[in-house]
Amino acid sequence: MPASRTRHLCSVAAALVLTVTAPAAAASASPSAVGLREVLFVGNNWDGTADVIKSSGDYARIGRIDVVPDKAERMAEINADPVKWIYFMAIRNSVGEGHDQFVDDMYSTPDGSSVVVSRPSFADVVSIDLATGRVNWRFRVAGYRADHMAVSPDGTRVAVSASTANTVHVLDIVSGREVGRFATGDKPHENIFTRDGKYLYNMSIGDVNTATDAPWLDWTKGDRHITVVDATTFQQVKVIDMRQRLDAIGLKDYSDAVRPAVFSPDESKLYFQVSFFNGFFEYDLATDRITRTKTLPENPATSDDRTTFVNDSRHHGLSMRPDGSKLCVAGTMDDYATVVDRATLQEGPLVSASKPYWATVSGDGKDCVISESGADQVTAIDFATGRKRLSVPVGDHPQRVRLGHVADGWTGPGA
Asked: Using CA atoms, how far apart are residues 140 and 57, in angstroms rounded to an integer?
């Protein structure tokens, strides 16, 4: 390869080694104003509620929000439109596992006055006033399903995946006005802003609700890749196709659908999960290659039939201790979570958990907090010891857990 070409690729890679860890994302919404309290928002997907709990310590519940206060109006619209009704029922009977999906992701506004929620079954994003419980604004996404979101470091913009339209919308978090959008691979999923807010990463996962799950049929899942865009112009900067990187290390039978992902504190490494795999990978951005593979234990009770894995995700949930020394992995279909030493990739105790669907970091950075969607609770695991600290009950089928803020003294809308 010519030297000029090599220098160019290195400079592009270096420019893109700018992303965000879970604690940095949480800090992005940290308010400068006095009178706000840090909390954890827990989205109860099948309930249509969000529990607000303490961000550390005993994780006691502070209040609960109805995130579908306009449900009757939305259902009337769906029942009046045959196409919308078909998609609504398809979501219920496929990715919803027989249930409606009323909350996927959520972030609070910088002033702690509202929470912005993506609602898959209603194909929208809404802002809910935390004082009154009413809808401030509603944005209808392209297509028929809304999915994962991300908030910008300054807390002013929120990106949402429109999974059936292969599009990511970027909205003003206060007004709901669209400030930009960009095209992705098939079925956009996770979104991550870089720490400086200059770039936005999207991971597309393809068709996860089909039965063509055998490795030789992987090509039927669609075009799956990481799309990196300029977060001001929303022009594509880079595409990272993990198919090529997996093939290069002899893992041709592994899926290239990147699921939850987290970056190292020095922003040089990406750790990510893929469909069907009980483990995760380490990807070096500067050299553009997968550097390590971690296979985690299989639960003997977990079927090897891939069609039984919920939305193709054997493991779904990944977070990192703020100092970068430990990773926390949600082993969804294997019914456990574990803390992994980042230097050695040695896992700690396997903490029994019922279909853990997400992993985040507590406000004080000491715990990994997982959502146990099969037990309707969230569980805190000590990063230092890898052992369970406690569990607290929440609503039906908790999934995403995000740090945010509410007003001091807040105990729920209208309270």
From this structure: 37
Cβ-contact 158, 107 below 8 angstroms: yes
Pairwise CA distance, residues 46 & 357, whole Å: 13
Whether residue 401 contacts residue 40, with contact meaning beta carbons closer than 8 Å, is answered with yes
Q: What angle do CA 362, 367, 369 make, to 5 degrees?
A: 65
Residue corresponding to tokens 């997400």 = 358
Residue 11 has pLDDT above 50, yes or no: no
DSSP assignment letter at 347: B
- Distance (Å, rounded) from C-alpha 234 to C-alpha 180? 7
Contact 227, 239 (CB under 8 A): yes
Q: What is the pLDDT of residues 115-171, one digit of tens each?
A: 999 999 999 999 999 999 999 999 999 999 999 999 999 999 999 999 999 999 999
Residue 300: which residues within 8 A CB-CB, separation 6 or more? none
Output 82-85 pairs: Cβ under 8 A, ≥24 positions apart. Answer: 84/123, 84/144
Query: What is the residue whose two structure tokens read 């908030």?
Result: 151
Q: Which residue has the tokens 């054997």?
A: 314
Those residues whose C-beta lies under 8 Å from the C-beta of residue 269, and which sit 6 or more positions away, are 263, 282, 283, 284, 285, 291
What's residue 267's pLDDT? 87
The distance in angstroms from the start CA to the end CA of the chain is: 66
Contact 89/83 with Cβ under 8 angstroms? no
Quote the Cα angle for 306-95-102, to 5°: 150
Q: What is the CB neighbour count within 10 angstroms for residue 95?
A: 20
CA dihedral (206, 211, 213, 219) positive or negative: negative
pLDDT band at 22; cut points 50, 70, 90: very low
| Rg (alpha carbons) of the chain, rounded to whole number | 20
Beta bridge pairs of residue 53: 40, 61
343, two tokens: 């230097």
Here the tokens at position 366 are 């000491």
**Residue 242, SS3?**
helix
* Whether the Cβ atoms of residue 255 and residue 311 lie closer than 8 Å to each other: no
pLDDT digit string, tens, across residues 337-348? 999 999 999 999
**Alpha carbon distance 44, 256 (integer Å):** 29
**Overall pTM surpassing 0.85 (yes/no):** yes
Task: State the burial class of residue 96 (Cβ atoms within 10 Å of its Cβ: 0-12, 13-18, 19+).
Answer: buried
**Going by DSSP bridges, is the β-strand pair 199-204/188-193 parallel, antiparallel, or unpaired?**
antiparallel
